[in-house]
Amino acid sequence: MEMPVPSALVISRKQQLVSRLREVLPHDAVISHISETRAYECDGLTAYRCPPLCAVLPANTAEVAAVLKICHEMNVPVVPRGSGTSLAGGALPTADCVILGVAKMNGVIETNYDDRYIRVQTGRTNLSVTGAVETNGFFYAPDPSSQLACAIAGNIAMNSGGAHCLKYGVTTNNLMGVTMVMMDGTVVEIGGAHLDAGGLDLLGVICGSEGQLGVVTEATLCILHKPEGARPVLMGYDNSEVAGQVVTDIIKAGVLPVAIEFMDRPCIEATEKFAQAGYPMCEALLIVEVEGSDAEIDAQLALIMDIARKHNPVELREAKSADEAARIWLGRKSAFGAMGQINDYMCLDGTIPVSELPFVLKRIGEMSKEFGLDVGNVFHAGDGNMHPLILFDANKEGDLELCEAMGAEILKLCVEVGGCLTGEHGVGIEKRDLMHVQFAPADLEAQMAVKDVFDPKWLLNPAKVFPLDASARRRVA
Amino acid sequence: MTPHSQTDLAQMIADAKGPLRIIGGGTRAIGRVIGETLDMSAMSGITLYEPGALTLVAKAGTSVAGIEETLAAQNQRLAFEPMDHRTLLGTEGTPTIGGVAAANVSGPRRIAVGAARDFMLGVRFVDGAGNIIKNGGRVMKNVTGYDLVKLMTGAYGTLGVLTEVSLKVLPAVETTLSLTLNGLDDAMAIKAMSAALSSPYEVTGVAHDPSTATTHFRFEGFAASVAYRAAELTKKLSAFGTAAEAQTDWTAIRDVHAFANNQGDVWRISVKPSDAAALTAKLGATAVQYDWGGGLIWALTPEGHDLRTAMGGTAGHATLIRGKGCGPTFHPEPAPIAAITAGLRAKFDPRNILNTGIMS
After folding, report:
1. pTM above 0.90, yes or no
2. Is domain A108-225 in CATH 3.30.465.10, yes or no?
3. Residues in A touching B278 (Cβ below 8 Å)
4. Which of A318, A430, B235, B236 has the maximum number of C-beta atoms within 10 A of its C-beta?
5. pLDDT tens per residue, range A411-425
6. β-strand A315-318 against A229-237: which pairing, if any?
């Protein structure tokens, strides 16, 4: 992975930078010794590592503004960091950067059940947002798999999704307002507790900008009352094409499940060994969950079971109790862990039109043979967000490169059939150099023009999202 | 000027000598726009519709009615329920999907499912320099690069001229049922609407008309579920009165028919629902109507006032939808936001020729 040459000038001024940062932050909030900065050398994409010049842990918006002002004046790149769970290298440092961690900012500022929002500091974890409101019967809908650890700051940066977005949408559909610090230290308020922000939809472009437009320190999030109940059904088919057709038929029938999850045989086998969820051995397994009142669930499941039966399932199992529901979800929830037991893996997240599912699965199977690497598929079928897990051996020379090459081919396939490179993990450094596959030069220019406005010096989260050749002129300037 | 293709349009914009006034069906004329008319209605047609993927792609000049008809044939719909402005504004013509996107037009169901911007999956557009640009795509989950789809939605053509949009669509519903409560004042009505929206009973419309003191609640879905939810909410709202089944005209609420034949300026105000009643009390309005559980206020006022003065420090914003008003059409922005807006305009429309003046 090519990264820009770090600035020798910035590195040579480390001591001056650290002492200026200590003037505006408590002593222990500035981390500069290599024994400690190493803790920030990578995120969830552990194949790439680079300790930052230093790291800061501000406690509030004013401290973030003070840090950014100093970095702006001294032309020091800044890499914002939530909980460091990015699978795309979204928080990978450069050797000349300051890591700005939001971990200390994890408070709840306001909850309002009448107007149905919560305002939090963005270092707060996704799950603990729901934790703050669930005793009142409410929840925060976006639920990325890493929700126990990942921070709202990172969710906003990557516009994170989750298993339930077919019904509830992703982060951008649940974000009402932010307090954001611009690279020069200016603090801006965008949106708020009212339903739609005025003027241009700046909130919409900030969400998903991978920390390149500003540092979001506080966020107003929609909260919803929990549904009365939810119930999953499990179905197995001996052919993934048929399973794909079942998904399409369910959607066409007018039912809107909250989740439709798909697992293929390699994944089923691995999870059975690991979690013994009692899944049938078959080519394709679907978990479909609906929610609402009992009446709502019964009506929806009756329709879904009818459709499922028409396609001759090898297994069809409706959860009759909370325990049975948990068992149906057990295998799906342990799928990633199970695959990790077998081997190192790389998890992709390209999205495809649902109608292309059978073709893409077939092609991935062929590629697996061509490259000689096993692939398991477990993903959100309702919205076409694939998660092929390519297994490789990190200790075997050349295996990582082979795996990356195969990953790139799969993502190109996703784009070819009308989809995209990433559905919820973000571009980061991982898919940066594939952006030319999806976008023409003018498309990338338009996106970079937005960054020019928010961060004219191109100091925020450098070397992410845009191919280095496309951004070269701007980064040098 | 009437472009027939994206290439045509790019050439026309690159060659333009002065400001261009972009219109689709010309039904939502707001603001003070100058320039030669750029008529997008010839770029029309649904280019892709996959009911099984809940996705529809259409050229910008495609009529909303045509799209709704195509969707209905597959038992699907535009869930955000775009408003038709013709009755309120006294305009003629055919509303287009490009206009819906450019103005981020939603209806009562916005409170439950999201606004037009939440259903926009992709755009193609030509910027003010004549560059052809695409962003997003036709899939539901897509975080590849910056989200210019949202930025273009609601930009009123000031950053580029939309040529094609991709939309997420949703299943239509089996049954619709409305309940009303009568006799509540504004503050109590908003409390009742908040109670409904804070329940698990999934109301898909909550509106209040002070002129008749009627509060409306809408349920949609499978018949058994609708009946159950309506009954449960009736119990929950018993402190506010007895909710009764009614034949609510949600189209009239969506399109603000009540103000159509009344003289005066019409304002659209976005606020926190719990601020709404106190705010309307100080607006000096002739009439108001609440949608989105109080989060959207439609206000009819005597001509020539600027409502922002009356709003004072209340968080939110007001847009002049009809009439002369005084002051800008859109709510003035704080200096740092105005600087970002100006910066984006300068990048996407360096000659300042696209719908000049509409958003100021």
Report:
1. yes
2. yes
3. none
4. A430
5. 999 999 999 999 999
6. antiparallel
